[in-house]
Amino acid sequence: MKTKLEVKGLCYSYHTLAGETQALLDISFDVKDGEFFVIVGPSGCGKSTLLSLLCGLIEPERGTVSIDGKARDESHAAMGYMLQKDHLFEWRTIFSNISLGLEIQNRLDGKAREELAEMLDTYGLSQFRDARPGQLSGGMRQRAALIRTLALKPDILLLDEPFSALDYQTRLEVCDDISTIIRTQKKTAVLITHDLSEAISVGDRILVLSSRPGQVKDVIPVTFSREYDRPLLRRNAPEFSAYFNQLWKELRSHD
Question: What is this structure's pTM?
Answer without folding.
Answer: 0.91
